[in-house]
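Customer escalation, tier 2.

The customer says the design service returned an amino acid string that "doesn't look like it belongs to this structure." They asked us to rerun it and document both sides in this ticket. The original structure tokens are below, unchanged.
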């Protein structure tokens, strides 16, 4: 990582670190950086917690597809790893997970998933613009409030992936499936 982790964390973030250790078996690498700014860490953790809540109008699989695809597009090794693990827990199709980087050429994705992934990529790739047609397509499945939440999820995952990529946060070996696009694999192998 390009910024060192603090050795001693504020008492205010110790509950978050404990929860991560309980759920993942270890503290997540990004938490070691977000932990330098406790208030910011709580805000980020709360925001994602809300977006990934059980009562979300977006299905758990859809949320995970979005998070992994944004992670892939941003070449965020940590995000692909952590979000890939969550997708593997939620999705019963290993082939679908492996095909996500090339979803446009796979018959494994339903039309709703294709519309969400198209919207996700358009929001994530610099220079592309969301169109009225894209929103109209999403409205076949989602009301406007849910589209706002989907947009927030995509935006949050972009923030997270860009933060981790800028500070060179490494993966932690959570996901054993080969879902990283070639650009991430090449970067990881060149570091070895």
């Amino acid at each position: 990582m390009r910024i060192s982790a603090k050795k001693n964390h504020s008492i205010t973030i110790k509950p978050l670190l404990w929860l991560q250790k309980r759920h993942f078996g270890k503290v997540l690498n990004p938490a070691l950086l977000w932990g330098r700014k406790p208030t910011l860490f709580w805000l980020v953790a709360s925001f994602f917690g809300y977006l990934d809540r059980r009562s979300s109008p977006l299905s758990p699989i859809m949320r995970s597809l979005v998070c992994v695809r944004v992670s892939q597009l941003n070449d965020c090794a940590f995000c692909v790893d952590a979000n890939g693990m969550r997708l593997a827990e939620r999705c019963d199709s290993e082939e679908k997970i492996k095909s996500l980087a090339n979803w446009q050429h796979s018959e494994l994705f339903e039309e709703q998933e294709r519309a969400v992934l198209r919207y996700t990529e358009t929001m994530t790739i610099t220079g592309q613009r969301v169109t009225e047609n894209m929103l109209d397509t999403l409205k076949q499945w989602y009301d406007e409030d849910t589209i706002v939440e989907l947009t927030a999820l995509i935006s949050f995952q972009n923030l997270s992936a860009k933060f981790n990529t800028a500070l060179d946060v490494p993966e932690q070996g959570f996901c054993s499936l080969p879902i990283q696009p070639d650009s991430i694999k090449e970067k990881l192998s060149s570091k070895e």
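Tier 2 assessment: The sequence is consistent with the input. DSSP finds ten helices and no strands in the chain. Residues 144-166 form the longest helix (23 residues). Sent an explanation to the customer and offered a walkthrough call.
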